[in-house]
């Protein structure tokens, strides 16, 4: 490990000041030192499944009298001569603090220092997933991708792994296969032939000049190709999937960007691109700057699921430019993003009915999450207490949908014309900064301080209840126009299941021929919510064949159908559910399907998990293991 004064090009003038330490999920002393620039010089070794190299951290001295820098890490540094101490044991769930003592000759008043730390990842690195050629679609080349949210960057390299610290980034990644990273490309270059007959390597370089938190560090490398999906957008994916992915996104991407710009302000990251990952990716999307990482379940061949892109694009403002200061304030990332996503949907479709229809689907997701935790659970609060907790354990629809409802409430309370003036003000005030809920509140109150009507309305907001009360927020009066057809059809199936004499309903494919896939989702979720689950296995089979759900390629739809079938103990869906769980690693689908399959056929669920253990991302694998423990 090398410690040296920072170069003049990165050292800032002027006295730094101590900052408040707001994040309970980091071990770093970022109130005394804060990272301003990160350079990663890494080589991808597919054979060893290891990322190896050097990370250079430039840190600003905030305390002036601190001679120790404490970083988050889950890996072991390997320079025996450096003055550092790696704690003898982990502090769960946060890893192992790395304490670095500055040499006596280091000027304690220096504004910056740079640490150069040699690192190599291990098999326990939770931020990386390595895929063998057999686990990819064309089975020709290996693949690697990262997922650092929420606190997994520390398993890649020592850092201040908190969203309350933002730095610029330089990526120097050597690989035998194409590389993408969360910056603008400045390479590739410097080809090096292999000495053992294997493919040579190129150095792929990227730079991110907009400061970002460590959880947005991202890289991927594999057999990927690209195609244009707009004047400032490109899709990347496997060569065999490229045509389908291009078709899925090229119609809407630019329209989404322009719609978002009208609500907030111009897009700041130059280009917006999408990397469609292999199916083990655990999320619908990850908002890594410049390159959104997306699940292949979005590519359904019907453009019915591209709202995921509207969501991840919205993160370019909420989350990436303006970041939650800690995971306790995650709603500031996800609630705002849901709100902006639905504004985009309304603008593109030309009607608020579509926004409210999306919100109705979101409310069902909120109901499911609150049912999972229990209505009085800490994790159902808008601001949960995460001290000593793993943020991944709190992950659910709560910050997304409860956060959305909170912002939607302000829109209705103040009127959209006034509210729309606050939106760009908020995103300008905290641009390239991190923010907590109390700063959001103060900024909102200050903005409307001279508007007597708005100020009076905001004074009557029960802030403590919104922030700290567990369970449901007040349910808005959503426009149910698009959902009413779904509810009416669900009522007919319920009457059929209950053998009501007045029911003369005969299911037909015409029932849903004019529907979108999301209307089928609402229909199925309505049936899932019925008390005592009256839909019989026979009716599940009839529904699957009549409406084509059993053969659908749209995972959003078919996963809901299988969940309903499992709830109804329809054994005909048990095996297809297990097969789907071997093809899709997105936790949105994996969690409810495993939960129901464990309750219906634990042996099949256990066998399915063991067969696909290595297919799942480490984050997803850990989540499933906890489901088995909970339902043991």
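^ structure tokens above, recovered residues below v
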């Amino acid at each position: 490990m090398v410690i040296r004064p920072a170069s003049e090009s990165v050292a800032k003038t002027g006295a730094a000041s101590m900052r408040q330490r707001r994040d309970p999920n980091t071990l770093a002393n970022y109130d005394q030192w804060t990272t301003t620039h990160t350079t990663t010089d890494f080589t991808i070794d597919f054979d060893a499944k290891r990322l190896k190299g050097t990370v250079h951290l430039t840190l600003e001295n905030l305390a002036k009298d601190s001679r120790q820098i404490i970083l988050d890490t889950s890996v072991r540094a390997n320079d025996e001569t450096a003055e550092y101490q790696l704690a003898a044991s982990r502090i769960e769930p946060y890893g192992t603090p790395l304490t670095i003592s500055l040499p006596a000759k280091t000027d304690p008043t220096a504004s910056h220092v740079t640490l150069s730390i040699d690192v190599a990842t291990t098999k326990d690195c939770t931020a990386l997933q390595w895929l063998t050629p057999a686990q990819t679609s064309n089975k020709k080349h290996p693949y690697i991708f990262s997922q650092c949210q929420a606190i997994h960057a520390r398993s890649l390299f020592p850092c201040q792994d908190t969203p309350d610290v933002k730095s610029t980034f330089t990526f120097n990644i050597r690989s035998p296969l194409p590389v993408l990273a969360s910056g603008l490309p400045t390479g590739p270059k410097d080809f090096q032939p292999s000495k053992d007959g294997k493919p040579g390597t190129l150095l792929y370089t990227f730079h991110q000049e907009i400061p970002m938190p460590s959880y947005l560090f991202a890289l991927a490398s594999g057999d990927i190709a690209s195609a244009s999906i707009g004047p400032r957008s490109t899709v990347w994916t496997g060569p065999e999937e490229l045509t389908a992915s291009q078709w899925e996104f090229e119609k809407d991407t630019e329209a989404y960007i322009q719609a978002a710009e009208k609500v907030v302000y111009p897009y700041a990251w130059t280009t917006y691109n999408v990397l469609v990952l292999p199916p083990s990716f655990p999320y619908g999307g990850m908002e890594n700057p410049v390159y959104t990482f997306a699940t292949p379940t979005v590519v359904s061949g019907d453009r019915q699921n591209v709202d995921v892109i509207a969501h991840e694009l919205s993160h370019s403002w909420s989350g990436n430019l303006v970041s939650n200061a800690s995971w306790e304030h995650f709603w500031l990332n996800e609630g705002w993003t849901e709100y902006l996503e639905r504004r985009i949907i309304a603008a593109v479709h030309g009607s608020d009915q579509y926004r409210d229809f999306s919100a109705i689907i979101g409310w069902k997701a909120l109901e499911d999450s609150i049912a999972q935790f229990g209505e009085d659970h800490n994790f159902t609060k808008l601001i949960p207490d995460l001290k000593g907790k793993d943020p991944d354990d709190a992950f659910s629809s709560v910050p997304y949908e409860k956060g959305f409802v909170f912002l939607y409430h302000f829109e209705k309370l103040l009127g959209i014309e006034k509210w729309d003036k606050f939106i760009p003000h908020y995103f300008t005030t905290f641009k390239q900064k991190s923010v907590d809920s109390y700063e959001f509140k103060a900024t909102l109150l200050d903005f409307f301080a001279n508007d007597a009507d708005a100020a009076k309305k905001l004074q009557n907001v029960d802030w403590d209840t919104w922030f700290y009360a567990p369970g449901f927020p007040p349910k808005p009066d959503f426009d149910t126009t698009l959902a009413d057809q779904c509810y009416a059809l669900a009522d007919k199936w319920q009457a059929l299941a209950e053998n009501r004499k007045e029911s003369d309903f005969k299911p037909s494919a015409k029932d849903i021929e004019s529907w979108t896939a999301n209307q089928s989702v609402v229909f199925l979720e309505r049936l899932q919510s019925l008390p005592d689950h009256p839909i019989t296995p026979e009716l599940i089979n009839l529904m699957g064949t009549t409406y084509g759900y059993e053969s659908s390629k749209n995972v959003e739809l078919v996963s809901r159908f299988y969940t309903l079938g499992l709830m109804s103990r329809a054994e005909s869906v048990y095996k297809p559910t297990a097969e789907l769980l071997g093809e899709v690693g997105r936790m949105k689908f994996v969690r409810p399907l495993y939960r129901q399959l464990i309750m219906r056929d634990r042996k099949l669920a256990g066998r399915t998990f063991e067969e696909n253990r290595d297919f799942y991302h480490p984050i997803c694998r850990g989540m499933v293991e906890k489901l088995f423990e909970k339902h043991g």
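The chain has a mean pLDDT of 93.
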